[in-house]
Amino acid sequence: MDKEKINIKDLAVLWKKDKRQYVKQSTYSAYALIVENQVFPTFGNLYAVTEADVQSFVIDRLNAGLSQKYVKDILIVLKMIVRFGEKHGYLQHFEWDIKYPTAPEKQGIDVLTATNHRKILDYISQNFTFRNLGIYICLTTGLRIGEVCGLKWSDLDVERSMLTVQRTVERIYILEDDGTKHTQIVVNTPKTANSAREIPLNKPLMTMIRPLKKVVNGDYGDGDARKRNLEARGYDYEAVRAAVNAYMRGESFGASKPTEAKARYKITTPSGVNVREGAGRRYAVRKAYPKSKTVTVTQTKEDGGNLWGKTSDGWFAIRYQGATYAAEV
Asked: Which strand (E) or helix (H) includes residue 296?
């Protein structure tokens, strides 16, 4: 190939071939997409790229509605291409001094209020699916969506209530050399070296996923052995089985999620507490526990920020609307 006659399009093809050896597939795909959609149409037939060419391109793209950040990303790729060409003797490059219009004042970022944040977490607690669990993890840990999608059960240390982030999943746009286009899901290492990290998990999240991990991973055994082991630890076997089956189908199943069981609680409120047929005030009252009575709780359930405990008599409020009705002993 005549190094004196090569244009930017041919140069970009050589640059991509070289670059592909050193970057992640997702990074390469992002570069290739910029080259195809932004570099080729404007610069592809040129044999040199001047400052005036680039300045005109910047103003045109900004006026077309592209963000200043994305335009700068395009120029990063364009600079890599021309510097590659200069290094290999295909063209002579002079640095550009590109000016950008004064950026308008940044608008404030809309964020969830504390109240709405709590509402979402409460809803997920009562309407469990694996998708909702992912949202819960995002809201309580700050993980990126790709990091949540990349989680495995082995990343969860239930003894330390710790989550290890060590991979990310993303769907990337693939542009093949022959022009065919498709998308592909890839599993990569985290975005940066500091993104590989350990994150502590709060108690409500651990209450939700600790028993699920044990059952899904087979920690309680199979068949009759599983039933014996679960019941020995105070679980309602049928409730656990129904919940896990619903989880595996991706369905909501908030009514009978199992939690760690067999804790002793002492009623502390002077007026005592009502014992109901279910976890919530909408259920009928069966009886009442007086102050100072100690009961064995075999299952707990959160409902709208309130905590209910299950005994052999029914359900009672351990914590309701900010008030505590019983204390663990």
From this structure: strand 294-297
Q: pLDDT per residue over 290-325, tens digit each?
A: 999 999 998 888 877 789 999 989 999 999 988 899
DSSP 8-state symbol, 103: P
The set of residues, in sequence order, having a beta carbon less than 8 Å from that of 257 and lying 6+ positions away, is: 128, 208, 211, 243, 301
259: tokens are 């939690």
- Give the separation between CA 47 and CA 17, rounded to whole angstroms: 19
Is the whole-model pTM more than 0.85?
A: no
Distance of alpha carbon 176 from alpha carbon 20, whole angstroms: 12
Q: How many CB atoms lie within 10 A of CB 208?
A: 20
Nearest-angstrom CA–CA distance, 200 and 163: 6
Could you tell me if residue 265 is left (phi over 0), alpha (psi between -120 and 50 degrees) or otherwise beta? beta
Q: Which residues pair with 276 in a beta bridge?
A: 285, 315
More confident residue, 40 or 305: 40
Nearest alpha carbon to residue 294 among 313, 268, 275: 268
